[in-house]
Amino acid sequence: MPDSSTCPKCQSLYGYPTGTSMMCPECGHEWVETQTPEPEETIDDSSLVKDANGVVLQDGDTVILVKDLPVKGASKAIKAGTKVKNIKLTTGDHNIDCKIDGFGAMALKSIFVRKSG
Fold it and tell me: What is the distance between the alpha carbons of residues 90 and 107, in angstroms, rounded to a whole number?
């Protein structure tokens, strides 16, 4: 425990230890000083892109569509089971950029694919 600490209530610099907690001489606030160790490495779970089965995807992976996907402006849908090679992960709602044979460049949602292999 440090010898002095800033009071979280009044921001006084004169907080002092009382044995099991800290006390502020100016406002009388008592608090427990918690020491949280620095995490060695944290993975931001929100930045991971997962497929329909929860498997983490990476750039360059090959994926397979799990359902038919209609395409605006195209006369037919992309069929389930279509293999898409060499994907590129992006941010946003449609988090996969890829090229699909017969359709060209596309943006897909990861919830509609599963990792191949």
Answer: 9
- Give the residues across from 41 on adjacent strands: none
Contact 10, 26 (CB under 8 A): yes
The number of distinct structural domains making up the chain is 2
Residue with tokens 């590129």: 88
Domain at 80, CATH number: 2.30.30.40
Q: What is the span of the domain harbouring residue 1?
A: 1-37
Q: Is the pTM of this model over 0.70?
A: no
CA separation for the pair 60, 4 (Å, rounded): 52
pLDDT digits (tens, 9 = 90+) for 77-116: 999 999 999 999 998 889 999 999 888 999 999 999 999 9
Strand 30-31 relative to strand 22-23, pairing: antiparallel
